[in-house]
Structures are given as C-alpha cells and as structure tokens.
C-alpha cells in the first residue's frame, strides 16, 4: 500500500492511525502491536460519554522472547571493578 503522494505526515497524530508499541522492560526492544480494540473502545467511549477529540495513551511493557525468564540463557555475571 502506498500513501497518497503530496501528503506527508511527519507528526504523529492521535486521531490518524497512530501506532502502539510493546516495549521490553529488559532490553528496551519495541514491537508494534495491533491495538484496534483499544481504538474502537476509546472511540465508542467518546461517543457514549459525549466527548469529542478523545485521545489516549497506552503504555505496554513486557519481556520479549529474548529476555524471557523461561528461556535457558546464562545469567549475566556482573563485574564491577
Ligand atoms: Zn527483551
Ligand atoms: Zn491508539
């Protein structure tokens, strides 16, 4: 899919298809996530409550596959000198 030429969005706009990310608390890896449920929920809530221009901030953090405790990885040895 290509965006309409001549219209460049260089600023994130909450009401225009913004994205949400899931960030790993361990290594800081960020993965884009599908949050259509949040979008529709927020939009519906705005209608129900009679609010316009409803914006939201969603912070999602977790532990990625690479940092998952269940994974058998050698524990990093701290070396302070
Ligand atoms: Zn990680
Ligand atoms: Zn959103």
Automatic annotation (TrEMBL):
It comes from Streptomyces tunisiensis. InterPro entries: Fur_C, WH_DNA-bd_sf. This is Transcriptional repressor.
